[in-house]
Amino acid sequence: DMHIEKKCRRCVQKFTRKKILFHMNEAHGVAMPTCGVCGLRTLKESALIRHQRNVHLNEKNIKCSICEKRFYTQSNLKDHMITHEQNKVFKCGDCSKCFARKE
């Protein structure tokens, strides 16, 4: 969550997750990897690589074993797997079709 406060590893100050990036850069001179496409700045190179793969390169390497639909992340696949559940208890008020999720 972007609103949870995190303590700076180099000093005692606390910041939200979003603001700690700027603090590390400005107060401690930590260079932040920056996305050349959208300008997103991260603390770790691995986070930048993951961002570029998921957002800009359209790499969907994780495949559903049931329907073979592809996803960017394991978390996306986990959310998708709910659609395959047999326990479909949420009924649509418009079409009367039942779903596993209320959304």
Instruction: List how many beta strands DSSP finds.
Output: 6
Q: Uncertain runs with pLDDT below 50, 5 residues or more?
A: none
Write down the secondary-structure element order.
EEHHEEHEE
User: Could you tell me the mean pLDDT?
Assistant: 84
What topology emerges from the helices and strands here?
Elements: E1 5-7, E2 14-16, H1 17-28, H2 45-56, E3 62-63, E4 70-71, H3 74-81, E5 90-91, E6 98-99
Antiparallel strand pairs: 1-2, 3-4, 5-6
Protein name: C2H2-type domain-containing protein
Domain C2H2-type: 33-61, 62-89
InterPro entries: Znf_C2H2_sf, Znf_C2H2_type
Structural notes for this entry:
By secondary structure, this protein is an alpha+beta fold. The chain folds into two domains: 5-43, no CATH class; 62-99. Helices cover 31% and strands 14% of the residues. The strands form three sheets. It has a two-stranded antiparallel sheet. The protein has a two-stranded antiparallel ribbon with strand order 3-4. The longest helix has 12 residues, at 17-28. It holds the Pfam family zf-C2H2. Keywords: Metal-binding, Repeat, Zinc, Zinc-finger. This is C2H2-type domain-containing protein.
Entry keywords:
about 100 residues, alpha+beta, 2 domains, two-stranded antiparallel ribbon, 3 helices, about 30% helix
Entry summary:
This protein has 103 residues and is an alpha+beta fold. The chain has helices at residues 17-28, 45-56, 74-81, and strands spanning 5-7, 14-16, 62-63, 70-71, 90-91, 98-99.
